[in-house]
Amino acid sequence: MAGGDDGLSKRSIGLAFRIGIEMVAAMIVGVGGGMLLDNWLGTTPWGLIGMFFLGAGAGIVNVYRAVNGIGYAPGYRKQPGPESGSEQ
Amino acid sequence: MDPLHQFQIQRYLPINIGGLDASFSNSALYMVITVALITGLIVYGMRGRALVPSRMQSLAELFYEFVANLVRDNAGPDARKYFPFVFSLFMFIMVGNLIGLVPGTFTFTSHIIVTFGLALTVFVFVTLLGLIKHGFHFFSLFMPSGVPMALAPILIPIEILSYLSRPVSLSIRLFANMMAGHTMLKVFGGFSVLLGGALGGLGYTVGILPLVINIALVGFEILVAMLQAYVFTILTCLYIRDALELH
């Protein structure tokens, strides 16, 4: 929770708060989904293992997008227009 | 002295609907207060409709214009129709966060079930919007154009997971920031009291130090309260844009 330095603009603090959570959230969804899949299909460790890596990948993709300012569109298309609403 | 005591739910009016605990709790009470305050501000502030606004009217117009600009810049001009939804979300979260900073009140945004409910509303709304606007074409969201077919088996699950993680990251961000901030305030407040209790007069003198930190933290928490409402709103706008402008 360190933050609030004087030189930082509101936008950059917002970005800093965002990206840390992005990765964790994707991992939670991945691991949780993997465990549910295992419970459902009875494939015990494999759903968890596979979804763990997919979740990690999704987390990295999320952070990459948030930092690069592509916005939140799944897919690597750049948003048109200069004010694409992404944080710089 | 328990810093987590402030997050406890108290049932004021126990209601039980078919085994479902739908009691009117302190959380619900503060939600009602929040909604009443927002409605009061907007309705009372705008009652004059003066060309030269009064103080209340300026405040109401300030919020309105802020969110209207946010929607226009981040969600595109087509998203004008969804402004009421975004505005309600922003006001609810912001006033809820700020009310929680008043000592003795309850912060309903510090409970993950509340923030997850809000995030899920946004998620379902945006997904339905995309499906209605684009029909089946909406699922092209998960297969970026210009990607070799060989990568599809890896990329599509990653994209779907990335999409599904949206409500989770939205809700965890808001809830974690609010809960961490309020716990920290309570912990530093507790230092002062404990020092005074243990060392008497000297303790109260030294206890000024945590108090000074707490004053700075309250300022920081006001920033966080506004910022988290802003982040939640801006992400909602970006999601609406994604659903509207499927490339």
Reconstruct the topology from this structure.
The complex is a heterodimer of chains A (88) and B (247).
Chain A: H1 10-41, H2 44-68
Helix pairs in contact in A: 1-2
Chain B: E1 11-13, E2 16-17, E3 20-21, E4 24-25, H1 26-45, H2 55-75, H3 83-100, H4 112-134, H5 152-199, H6 201-206, H7 208-244
Indicate the radius of gyration of chain B in whole angstroms: 22 Å
Assembly type: heterodimer
How many DSSP E strands of chain A?
0
> What's the mean pLDDT score of chain B?
88
Please give the alpha-carbon distance between the first and last residues of chain B: 54 Å
Task: Provide structural commentary.
The complex is a heterodimer of chains A (88) and B (247). Chain A has 88 residues and is mostly helical. Helix content of chain A is 65%, strand content 0%. In chain A, helix 1 runs antiparallel to helix 2 (44-68). In chain B, helix 4 (112-134) runs antiparallel to helix 5 (152-199) and helix 4 (112-134) runs parallel beside helix 7. The termini of chain B are far apart. With 247 residues, chain B is mainly alpha-helical. Chain B has helices spanning 26-45, 55-75, 83-100, 112-134, 152-199, 201-206, 208-244, and strands at residues 11-13, 16-17, 20-21, 24-25. A two-stranded antiparallel sheet of chain B has the order 1-4. Chain B is built from 7 helices and 4 strands, in the order E-E-E-E-H-H-H-H-H-H-H. The radius of gyration of chain B is 22 Å and the shape is globular. Chains A and B meet through helix 1 and helix 2 of A and helix 2, helix 5 and helix 7 of B.
Keywords:
heterodimer, A: 88 residues, mainly alpha, 2 helices, 65% helix, elongated, disordered N terminus, disordered C terminus, B: 247 residues, two-stranded antiparallel sheet, two-stranded antiparallel ribbon, 7 helices
